[in-house]
Amino acid sequence: LWGQDHVLGCVHNEESVTVVHRDDVIAWAKTWYVPNNSLLVVAGDLDPKQLKGELERAFAGWKKAPVPPTPSFKEPGLSGSRIRVVDRPGDHVTQIRIAQFGIRHDDPRFFDTLVWNHAFGGSAGSRLAKAIAGKAPSVLGASAAFDRNLDRGSFVVQAAARNSDALATAKLLLAQLAKMQREGP
Known about the structure:
Blueprint: H1 14-18, H2 22-32, H3 48-58, E1 93-101, H4 110-120, H5 127-135, E2 139-147, E3 154-162, H6 166-183
Helix pairs in contact: 5-6
């Protein structure tokens, strides 16, 4: 979806991990994990005055620091549909992913997509789960999720099925997407 040149599309492997050193991680944390770039959420049956004092003591040494602008990355231009097959000889199960660009976290449709995804494929009682349970017993699971970031995220429908049922399962997922588009939740 994102391509090799985008931060969300780069492939992580042993070589990419070995170029990151301890000092790199410490510098990154000092840059981004500062009070003026953080949010603390506390829940429970607590005394607010007591909690405030405890938090002030616990975080007394944590000082504000300049926060650089959030980096942004150019989206790859996509058109049409693409199918990528990764053959792993000896595997008996096919992993299926159908993806498209999603929305940003600050998109006004953010909360609508929570409801939409829950109904479509984000829960055990979703439309996708019911379609799979009724018609595709060899499918080992199916779900859908939005990846919401500061930048535009992705929307991914995924399933696993026996190799012999991979094509039928992919068609079933695409049909359920089309039905959801036509009819809504």
